[in-house]
Amino acid sequence: MNTVYLCQVSPDVSCGACCGLYNVADPSRENLEAMLVRRTRWFASVPRTVAGIDAFKASVEGAEPQERPFPDFHHCPFLGMIENDGCRVGCLLHPLATGNGGVDWRGLSHYGGMACRTYFCPSVRHLPARWLTAVRQSMDHWHLHGLVVTERRLLAAIFTILEDRMGREIEITDFSEPAPAATLLTTLTTLKLHWPFRRRGAPGVCNYFFEDGLYPRPPVKREATSIPTSRFEELFHELDSGFSSVDSMERAEATIEGLLFALDMIRTSQ
Length: 270
Ligand code: SF4
Ligand code: SF4
What we know:
Bound molecules: iron/sulfur cluster
Strand content: 5-15%
Helix content: 40-55%
Low-confidence stretches: none
Distance between the termini: 34 Å
């Protein structure tokens, strides 16, 4: 497995995607931030006992909407905030979390302590270290970070396009300070949040990345047979796209081309 660690990155960057963080009706940054802070405040006064923690879980689940884009993807009520020199998503049951006194309470979770301690998502296990390092170097907030980390095939599509365009593999220095390439990468990955060509009926930004075939991402939806395959087909597939006309697909292609043109500008100015 890769040794690039993306679960905890910096004071403001961490990930809770495999704990189901984004599998909520409103996965906006504002809503998730409010939810995580509220749970963390509640948890501060919870007795660290099995009964106390079980009661906290019941209270959280009773107070929050339980509708989910992916009903069979568990959303953990023990996701909260780590607030020290920054603010980022984290596990309230972790032994290092505030108030736990070094005791690991994750055995009380849905998946059990062993899974919580040892699971690594397919991106971390399979993507090349140079791509994961570029992600690590580029992200400055947990919300976008966790949204894109699990997007193994979207990241592969983006980095393949970037490397084809550059005519070489990316290097650590491409994403070091000052880092226009890092800005470009966050711009490309932010497309996932606000992609105007997302197909009708798509589940939204949450990604079901477990490799059990439960919720496969369908091919690009084309509402007319005249709409051809795109040179960015893989990217459009991973953005869960749908096109109503040739014109709408050409506008999507122009969006990507515009961002790649910015990459060419960066390279020629270096
Ligand atoms: S989804 Fe991957 S990067 Fe995120 S916390 Fe889980 S294992 Fe870590
Ligand atoms: S208890 Fe496990 S699933 Fe829940 S937030 Fe902690 S690590 Fe994630």
